[in-house]
Recover the amino acids of this structure.
């Protein structure tokens, strides 16, 4: 599969997963893809916790309300730190976003599905902090996202996207694409 194929085949999968373990080697490849992402001023702010242990997965799922990814055989938790990269700027959101996108694409390339769960756990109910506590994450890190990883047991639904012509212009806003 090419990178373009992975990009076009990736979707946010929210369905059930097959009861099939994800090999550690594949989880390592996905995590390595995440950590290969660029970071602002080369000051990496993103760390990962890969969870495949059934008891730990159960404990994490118990705090995720409303439930999400209940049947995923693995979860990758994305952590960030606020590290000043340039003047008073911290690029942690850009850093972890790039890492997440790389991991989503690597998962698809390896035949798995996933979904970027961030808003679900970073709201006022502090689900991300509860997950972090279960995983022993220090206070100077924030758990901002989790990615379920597994083989889809249902077909993926692709979201309708706004057409290319309504989102891309050349040489100025609103200029039509010339053939």
């Amino acid at each position: 599969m090419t990178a373009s194929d992975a990009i076009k085949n990736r979707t946010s999968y929210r369905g059930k997963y097959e009861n099939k373990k994800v090999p550690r080697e594949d989880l390592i490849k996905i995590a390595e893809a995440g950590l290969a992402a660029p970071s602002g001023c080369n000051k990496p702010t993103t760390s990962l916790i890969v969870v495949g242990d059934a008891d730990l997965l159960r404990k994490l799922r118990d705090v995720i309300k409303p439930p999400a990814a209940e049947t995923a055989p693995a979860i990758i938790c994305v952590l960030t730190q606020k590290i000043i990269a340039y003047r008073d700027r911290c690029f942690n959101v850009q850093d972890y976003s790039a890492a997440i996108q790389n991991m989503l694409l690597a998962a698809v390339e390896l035949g798995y599905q996933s979904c970027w769960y961030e808003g679900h756990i970073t709201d006022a109910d502090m689900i991300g902090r509860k997950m972090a506590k279960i995983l022993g994450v220090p206070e100077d890190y924030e758990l901002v996202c989790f990615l379920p990883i597994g083989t889809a047991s249902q077909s993926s639904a692709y979201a309708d996207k706004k057409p290319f012509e309504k989102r891309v212009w050349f040489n100025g806003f609103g200029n039509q694409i010339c053939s």
